[in-house]
Write a structure and sequence with these properties.
Elements: E1 12-17, H1 24-38, E2 41-42, E3 52-59, E4 62-68, E5 80-84, H2 88-104, E6 109-117, E7 121-129, E8 135-143
Helix pairs in contact: 1-2
Length: 157
Amino acid sequence: MSKPTPHPRFNHVAMSVPADLLDETGRTEILEFYGEVFGWTEMPTLTRDRELLVLRAYSHEQFVFLMAGAEPMRAGPMDHFGMSVPTLDLLDGMYERAAKRRETDPRVELLERKVEDYKVLSLHSFYVRFRLPLLTEVQCYEWASGFDEQSVGPAAG
């Protein structure tokens, strides 16, 4: 019997932004927001003033790569990348921290938290953006009894 082959996974998203956004003030604001709301941190050995900022998203193999571009990325109002959290408590905490930041900074775009019912799962989510071209969508999958992420039918028991 052979071992199952691990599936490839997404590990980063890259966005080109105006060089001014990657100056000391812009980097500080980005790091404060995404650090406070999501727990992301700077990969300081990669930072170059007005050129590059890499946000470590929980591991060195997950990151958001921000680079200065002569023609920065332009995205539509709902263009986004998504991440999944394992519990509603984590989703709620992130949402509450983003909402608190929005109270003091009108540049924080926050779409209300919602739940979509797909019978086998309830998909909890919200969208947030701060100074970047793309929104970040945060999702939490709440599986119905007898179902899980590996099944399309009732879970084997």
